[in-house]
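Support reply, case 0932

Customer input (verbatim):
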Amino acid sequence: MTNNGLEAESDAGRAKAFAGFAAELSPHDGRRAAIDALYRAQETEILLGLIAAAQSPPEMVRQAQAMARRLIATMRERPAANAVQGLMREYAISSQEGVALMCLCEALLRVPDAATRDALIADKIGGAAWRKHLGHSPSPFVNAATWGLLITGQLVAPADETGLSAALSRLVGRAGAPVIRAGVDIAMRLLGEQFVCGETIEAAISQAKRQEARGYRYSYDMLGEAAATKEDAERYLAAYEGALKAIGAVAGGRGVYEGPGLSVKLSALHPRYARSQRARATDELYPRLKKLAVLARGFDIGLNIDAEESERLDLSLDLLERLCHEPELQRWDGVGFVVQAYQKRALAVIDWIVELGRSSRRRIMLRLVKGAYWDSEIKRAQLEGLEGFSVFTRKIHTDVSYLACARRLLAAPDAVYPQFATHNAMTMASLRVMAGENFAHGQYEFQCLHGMGETLYDQIVGAGRENRPCRIYAPVGSHETLLAYLVRRLLENGANTSFVNRVSDAATPIEALIDDPVDAARALAPIGAPHPAIRAPRDLFAPARENSSGLDLSNEARLKGLAKALDKSAREAWRAGGAGASARAIVNPADADDVVGYALDAGRDDVERAFAAAAPSSWAERAPAERARILYAAAERFEAHAERLAGLICREAGKTIPNALGDVREAVDFLRYYATAVANPDFANATHRPLGTVVCISPWNFPIAIFTGQIAAALAAGNAVIAKPAEETPLVAQAATDLLHGAGVPVEALSLVIGDGAIGGLLTAHPGVSGVMFTGSSEVARLIAAAL
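Our regenerated output:
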């Protein structure tokens, strides 16, 4: 068949190459545009609006400060009442021991076997000075936890460490690793008893009776992180169903406001709850969520959808909207949702939910939290090179956002039932003053975490006090399921900026804990300035070089732009090595009907011509700074064509869209990395001599990253390059080569030779080769070494 015939036959394959991706795009209407627009907005762009929305009259601020001052003074009079606050203070995550404890808890989540756990414990616990904390805290709980860590630390300490008793050494010899794990188990179980309400829902309900008698309400959370398998999801679903039935049995007709409720994580109900699997996740997950909601309605208890990572918010809103319009749930106000104030979108999300409540003729239970994934949100944005952060970088900006959101909730009593979750006395007092003196049943409630908020809310709940309701968020689960939850709580409340941490520190004056966040935010210059110690994603490697730009694959606007670019890429006529009757068709490995393009393989004469054309001396004579400038320019061109290149990589190499975009980003990073290396004044032609003509042989699995990385290193050093890509991915290599040439790399410094392993053999055995850069199997590497 002729090439023209193949091209005609492949039209259908090209047309459907990314049809599935386009079908996954969310059919959002204009109501969500404001939310999308704020996803990566800069803090300076939105703080003025938040300040205006959060601002209270001076007299109200003074009332809130006076109330907070009284609350904090009482909290400090009872330092032993909250064991967790004592632990946060004693093992702050700014201390060596606090970091060791955090590292241990976080890492144990992913350690499957006992031997590796022993090694990890030895590494993280053994070197810390636990003894200095013993008896330092007035809390018996903290001292008990310290004993567990001290015993462990002594058991795993180096044998030659001074002060290690002979008795402990003998104990290690006799008992070995199990004793080490037992020591850590002591500390972890003590933590678990403080953070977890009960190992089973029945135990938790029984444990809650004492606090319910004092006026508290409960929302139970079955511990467990995102489901990894179908079996996980089924197990979590069964646990939620069992919990609803157990809670319903004791609810006693108290209703969704005064009775107990349940919080669920959508990621626990489906193992593929991600934007890339939107249709499947929602179609398969929604029936499970609806099933739980219908069951909850039968008992008239609230069902709250918990907040998770920012990239899942849009999916959660889709499901919330569908649930609120569900005919089987009409005239029931038990549907609940969580909004995280640390997200820049928080106020826009509140507005959208208020509108949803009105359009669906229901009152949505809305829990307002500050957020528990801040550190991972920051790091993910930096790692993925996003255009900004989805969360605020300053705590005071989150506090301002919280007050703005709270005011908006209190102004819409017909559409939402506000549930204000906070442990901060000033925040709580501000909300109390903002809501006014007149309080009616079902107006709003406060919320706190089990084991952490009682010293504050004991002053609020019940007759004779403020007589405002507070619901305790109560985790339920075993010691084994605690760790992930524990890590979030320690990170959230163990930071030195955390109110929970600072309130337990007598050295921190009360006045420092009752500052008005609106005034503090307004005092910054400029208003909304991000935290100077947190590098923007683009500046992650500053001042040396820029980070490569990524694409937010959970943002609808970005996805629509990507869909257009992918479609355009699929319709492009890709060729490598020139045209000719003997050009071979490159077929999409995931779809045999999709002919991606055509490649003309080189022969022996082409190899000779490539070496004859190579002129290493002319390229080497250019100043390193000039070579660096060209590589920087190439990086810019690669970024400008990132989506186009990603589409080609998906079709030619069979990569997924995220992996293809990551491949392009890595190529960009290589170009800037090597450019930066030779732009250094210490790198000079007089002292750093190139080899000459270098052959670069790259594999198919990173068709642009490794291909470009090898070339960039050789070019930066002043070598001429003959590049041979994998025979499976010549089209990507040709596109990258064209971009490098377009950036200013002369053709005599870079040529492309396409072919199979035999062509690679001709290149590496050629007498004109001065060096070879190769990524591939050890077997081929040995053959190349022998040829050289």
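We compared this against your earlier run and they match. Two observations from our side: The chain is about 55% helix and 10% strand. The mean pLDDT is 85. Please reopen the case if you see a mismatch on your end.
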